[in-house]
Amino acid sequence: xxxxxPDLAITKPHxxxxxxxxxxxxxxxxxxxxxxxxxxxxNDSFIAHAYLAVDFFFCLxxxxxAYAYDHKMLKLGFKNFMKLxxxxxxxxxxxxxxxxxxxxxxxxxxxxxxxxxxxLPAMFLGSCFMIPYPVVPxxxxxxxxxxxPTWSLFWEYIANIFYGLLLFKISNKILWILTVIxxxxxxxxxxxxxxxxxxxxxxxxxxxxxxxxFSFLAGMLVYxxxxxxxxxxxxxxxxxxxxxxxxxxxxxxxxxxMEPAIVIFYFPFLVALGAGAGVxxxxxxxxxxxxxxxxxxxxxxxxxxxxxxxxWMFMSYVEAKKPAMNEMMLITTxxxxxLVVFSYAILVFVDEPIRQRLKYILIKGEKxxx
Length: 370
Known about the structure:
The protein is mainly α. Helices cover 69% and strands 0% of the residues. It has one domain (6-369). The protein is built from 14 helices and no strands. It is globular and about 55 Å long.
């Protein structure tokens, strides 16, 4: 039996600015979800295009996975690769599902759970094991009602499976061909749906596959082609370039053309730019930017995976109390800050200890069975 050597379980150094951008995108997603409840019409939202953060995540994932595993997949093997990915991703899938279940049942502003009490076990298990179960029309038929962002993890796992079985060993020529085909599919999806904010619901699930199909491959292509843009730009400068996308006004006429262009050309460019930023910095004490990027990267995944149950609670409050806009903006501001702190606590006291323990058990078990 193949053993996961300790050096194979250790990841390569992170790209600091890319870590920071990932956290910035996660923060934009949280604000976007608050705004969806406060201002349902995207035309009136100042952050209407933050759903494209998911495409940025997928592109970043393709780049990082190729960077971390291309050189060691043959030695590591598919089984061990997936074990490591499960350890990295799945604790927060289950944690988010549990939080979602508790918030749904104990929501002080809604009794909606009573209508679905017989389906709660299936909803919870579906969320934990990422089996789509869109059964709540009152909440837009999300694939995973208890924790809607799980839909993107569903597609992330599928991308990881394809990578571990096939993509890591294909030639750059084949990767180019697949990426071009995926880009054409993305353009088609944008024309068909009118925008790229799809993949999360029972009636648009296939759009998620198309989004990850292109962006994951594009991220791999950025790494494989060594498209790293060395520059003096820092996290703040590149972060502004990323946030600018999320704040583009919503336009039904322009979205089918503008959004594919952003995802196909601009996001890979930002990944290449972020990968090359600050790489020539001399060794020494961590700068303020380094600390910000590390914190941002650390909380990005927990923030993304635990925030949405509280968005449902906010929605219940808005439906029940019909608060004024200034009150909703205050809740959005304070709620976002509280969720950042909550996510950091989940990371430090729950997620990291679980992952460290699972890695220890995995390596010890493999040695024992060898």
